[in-house]
Amino acid sequence: MTLEIICDKLIIYGTPESVTDQLLAFQNEVGQFGTLLYAGKDWKDRELGRQSMILMAEKVMPRINAGTSKQSAAAE
């Protein structure tokens, strides 16, 4: 295990659309998970960190929840 592998495989970042796609792909790989930990506590630019959290809550999570609901319905 190298730092490069960890960064490539375990750190999710990008636009709201990209983050959503990465999270849904991860969920397809490992199965549904109940909790997503958002770690971004050391932002140098406080407003940038705040905006990131807002985008996660308002853009990413609704799409994740919708995608998860569709997958659950398809499985039934």
Structure write-up:
- This protein has 76 residues and is mostly helical.
- 70% of the residues lie in helices and 0% in strands.
- The protein contains 3 helices and no strands.
- Helix 2 (16-30) crosses helix 3 (46-75).
- The chain is flat.
- The mean pLDDT is 85.
List the helices and strands and how they pair.
Layout: H1 3-10, H2 16-30, H3 46-75
Helix and strand string, N-terminal first? Answer: HHH
| Gross morphology | flat
Number of helices: 3
Main beta sheet: strand number and arrangement? Answer: none
> What proportion of the residues is helical, as a percent range?
55-70%
**Coarse structural class:** mainly alpha
Rg calculated over all Cα atoms? 14 Å
Give me the count of strands. Answer: 0
Tell me the β content: under 5%
Give the key terms:
76 residues; mainly alpha
Concise overview:
The protein is built from three helices and no strands. The chain has helices spanning 3-10, 16-30, 46-75.
